[in-house]
Automatic annotation (TrEMBL):
It comes from the Bacteria. It comes from Leptolyngbya boryana NIES-2135. Belongs to the prokaryotic GSH synthase family. Residues 133-317 form the ATP-grasp domain. Its EC number is 6.3.2.3. Keywords: ATP-binding, Glutathione biosynthesis, Ligase, Magnesium, Manganese, Metal-binding, Nucleotide-binding. This is Glutathione synthetase. It is an enzyme of class 6 (ligase). Pfam families: GSH-S_ATP, GSH-S_N. Pathway: Sulfur metabolism; glutathione biosynthesis; glutathione from L-cysteine and L-glutamate: step 2/2. PANTHER family: GLUTATHIONE SYNTHETASE (PTHR21621:SF4), RIBOSOMAL PROTEIN S6 MODIFICATION PROTEIN (PTHR21621). Its cofactor is Mn(2+); Mg(2+).
Length: 322
């Protein structure tokens, strides 16, 4: 197969951490051609989605003591070519948030890939349908007490009831803009004003789950099925568990409650074409459904001796042959 990955500039990826690199390595290992492009290198010409693509070869990471090790020159690209995306068997959309206007327009361009010729993962319409913070709201049995609003009065009232809460911008990732709120905090009004851009932008406010200190679990779902998990434990004075802000990754299992949550989500994820997803679970509650560029595979593979990226690429092969 020929597989194209829509990624952020490749020299900014971390081969020891980024799941996109794990996918590219797995594709290469399975004998596929690996191509890369970026969201800002997509076009529609004569009704067909095109991309400026580069063929890439990778030097796979190796396992050191408690970490992956990459060589300095871990990838090599060939000269760019402008091709219809239907020359690829599969296209993996892996651009990092923010899901801004440019991101959304890229998904509209991907609508002009013929699904009979090329699989696009995740489905461009699915990515548009699923705000990573708000998608969880439809699973009322799985989420903690949560509101979405831009009205300060509504936020203050919710906080009075809850005592403590976590404020989340709706388009953030990797802990960006996440704030701990406490009733009576002297910065409270100001934090709400900054986050809602003076009441013009809705945000999420969610009851604070004390179990967060024991970890924010990332569960990787392939076509709705959980295939692996890693716990991320906050370090130092930080309350956020994201790896990008120093969260320590730790080995973990998937509990029965978490399996039940995955079952709850599966039909909706399948309906929306959300084939590769990473959910976040804190204390048995669903807090986020990551659909754009979920990560965690490197950590799961290192801690559990699995090969999840190979499993994902093989499942795309199977989609192809159906
Ligand atoms: N309801 C919550 N209670 C306690 N901590 C939370 C809660 N929601 C999120 N957090 C903390 O904030 C971090 C980021 O939250 P999340 O909703 O996953 O957004 P993102 O990962 O996109 O920044 C989590 O890793 C977790 O440590
Ligand atoms: Mg998260």
């Amino acid at each position: 197969m020929k597989i194209a990955f829509i990624i952020d500039p490749i020299d900014r990826l971390d081969p020891t951490h980024d799941t996109s690199v794990a996918f590219m390595e797995a594709a290469q290992q399975l004998g596929h051609e690996v191509w890369i492009t970026q969201a800002n290198r997509l076009s529609v010409v004569q009704g067909k989605a095109h991309a400026t693509l580069e063929r890439v070869t990778l030097v796979p990471v190796t396992l050191g003591e408690n970490r992956w090790i990459a060589v300095d020159q871990w990838f090599q690209t060939e000269a760019p070519v402008f091709l219809p995306l239907e020359t690829m068997d599969a296209v993996f959309m892996r651009t990092d948030p923010p899901v801004n206007t440019a991101y959304l327009y890229a998904t509209y361009i991907l609508d002009y890939v013929d699904p009979a010729k090329t699989k696009v993962i995740n489905s461009p319409s699915g990515i548009r349908a699923a705000n990573e913070k708000m998608y969880a709201l439809q699973f009322t049995e799985a989420i903690p007490e949560t509101i979405v609003t831009q009205e300060k009065r509504v936020i203050l009232q919710f906080l009075e009831q809850q005592g403590t809460a976590v404020l989340k911008p709706l388009g953030g990732k990797a802990g960006e803009g996440i704030l701990f709120l406490q009733a009576g905090d002297r910065n409270l009004n100001s934090m709400i004003e900054i986050s809602t851009q003076q009441g013009t932008l809705p945000i999420m406010v969610q009851t604070y789950l004390p179990e967060a200190k024991d970890g924010d679990k990332r569960i990787i779902l392939l076509n709705g099925e959980p295939i692996g998990a890693v716990n991320r434990i906050p370090t130092g004075n930080e309350f956020r568990g994201n790896m990008a802000v120093g969260g320590r990754s730790a080995q973990t299992d998937i509990t029965d409650r978490e399996k039940a949550i995955c079952k709850m989500l599966a039909p909706t994820l399948q309906r929306d074409g959300l084939f590769f997803v990473g959910i976040d679970v804190i204390g048995g509650y669903l807090t986020e459904v990551n659909v754009t560029s979920p990560t965690g595979i490197r950590e799961v593979d290192r801690l559990n001796d699995t090969q999840l990226a190979v499993q994902v690429i093989e499942s795309i092969q199977n989609l192809e042959s159906k």
